[in-house]
């Protein structure tokens, strides 16, 4: 994937995200905030105005120079629905064109049921019906597993118990909308690139800890998916030979040692929590100073730090972002993580920035919505025919607005 194409995709979406978050701004301020040239901003803003996503607003007074014309968002230009799918629930959001979440809902879900996809479609239909009249551009779906291509959406997931499930095809038939499907960490990485701390950086490693352990990688401004969409399986790095059985069928994977279920199993074996005790009980014990609970987290942090160091040494990202449900206890993970990470990095990479983000569950679903919101600027065709359909819906909405205003 050419770097210029990937950069184009992210920059156009980042313009919308920045204006949505900070309000109307000048082209010069956009170029400075996004770290790109004024000429590039002028080029992209011209196209975004033509697409009906941006509009020129009043001039801003200057301090002696020519007044700057502000660019503002056309707020009703489109929306997207994103859904995070896990084994026992789904989280759904509706996002505006700037990525702002305007509605969210969580519903119980049984991925193992024979009717799981039909249930998912019904939940999405009900959620979509609760929105306003802003044009719906499409639906993005994030799943824990491998996805062949976003616009095809065939899913393999050990967490969901799905093998070659044609999720994209089935949802498109049920919803009659463009549907893009992606690994949930990859989708989350797109959200980080557009709205989070990865914005403005071309090479970033995004790591999630919680139920599983995953990673997404921005490489030269674009998402690195690998040969069949399975890049980023950090949780399945082999760590301990003949170690505990992992859900993937192998033994001693990182996830089998430090994933949520693994930590709870170890805590129960040590008598720290009862059979019904969960992550909150374990975290509270560590916060109250229980040495064994603190050591459990510290050991997990140590293993995670060494694994991430290996990835950083190989792929050379600018920064690492850690997030997910597990960061609630990060102050306990960090005791083992920091020294293990720095010691295992090659000397010139030991100063790499590690950002730990406070976690919100709907961030996963926002990442899924970002698949749709970024597809109008998909210069290298990652979103395929579904991206084309999203662009067509965006154009039709713009034309309808033009017709209504004449």
Automatic annotation (TrEMBL):
Family: Belongs to the ROK (NagC/XylR) family.
Pfam families: HTH_24 (PF13412), ROK (PF00480)
Organism of origin: Microbacterium aquimaris
SUPFAM superfamilies noted in UniProt: Actin-like ATPase domain, Winged helix' DNA-binding domain
The protein's name in its UniProt record: ROK family protein
């Amino acid at each position: 994937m050419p770097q210029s194409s990937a950069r184009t995709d992210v920059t156009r979406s980042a313009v919308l995200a920045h204006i949505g978050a900070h309000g109307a701004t000048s082209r010069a301020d956009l170029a400075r905030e996004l770290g790109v040239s004024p000429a590039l901003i002028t080029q992209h803003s011209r196209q975004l105005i033509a697409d009906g996503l941006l509009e020129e607003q009043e001039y801003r007074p200057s301090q002696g120079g020519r007044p700057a014309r502000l660019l503002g968002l056309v707020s009703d230009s489109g929306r997207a629905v994103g859904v995070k799918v896990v084994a026992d629930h789904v989280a759904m959001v509706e996002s505006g064109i700037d990525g702002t979440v305007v509605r969210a809902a969580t519903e119980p879900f049984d991925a193992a049921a024979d009717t799981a996809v039909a249930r998912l479609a019904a939940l999405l239909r009900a959620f979509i019906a609760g929105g306003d009249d802003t044009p719906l551009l499409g639906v993005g779906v994030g799943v824990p597993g491998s996805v062949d291509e976003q616009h095809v959406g065939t899913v393999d997931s050990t967490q969901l118990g799905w093998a070659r499930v044609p999720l994209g095809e089935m949802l498109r038939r049920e919803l009659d909308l463009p549907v893009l499907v992606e690994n949930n960490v990859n989708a989350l990485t797109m959200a980080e690139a557009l709205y989070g701390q990865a914005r403005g950086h071309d090479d970033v490693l995004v790591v999630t800890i919680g139920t599983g352990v995953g990673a997404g990688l921005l490489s030269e401004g674009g998402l690195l998916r690998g040969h069949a969409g399975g890049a980023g399986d950090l949780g399945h790095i082999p760590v301990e030979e003949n170690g505990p059985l992992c859900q993937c069928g192998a033994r001693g994977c990182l996830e089998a040692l430090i994933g949520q279920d693994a930590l709870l199993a170890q805590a129960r074996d040590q008598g720290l929590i009862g059979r019904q005790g969960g992550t909150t009980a374990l975290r509270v014990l560590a916060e109250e100073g229980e040495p064994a609970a603190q050591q459990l987290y510290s050991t997990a942090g140590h293993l995670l730090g060494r694994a991430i160091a290996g990835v950083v040494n190989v792929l050379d990202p600018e920064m690492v972002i850690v997030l997910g449900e597990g960061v609630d206890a990060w102050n306990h993970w960090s005791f083992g993580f920091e020294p293990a990470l720095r010691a295992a990095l090659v000397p010139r990479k030991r100063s790499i920035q590690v950002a730990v983000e406070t976690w919100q569950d709907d961030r996963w679903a926002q990442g899924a919505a970002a698949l749709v919101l970024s597809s109008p600027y998909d210069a290298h065709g990652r979103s395929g025919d579904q991206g084309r359909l999203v662009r067509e819906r965006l154009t039709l909405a713009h034309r309808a607005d033009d017709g209504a205003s004449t």
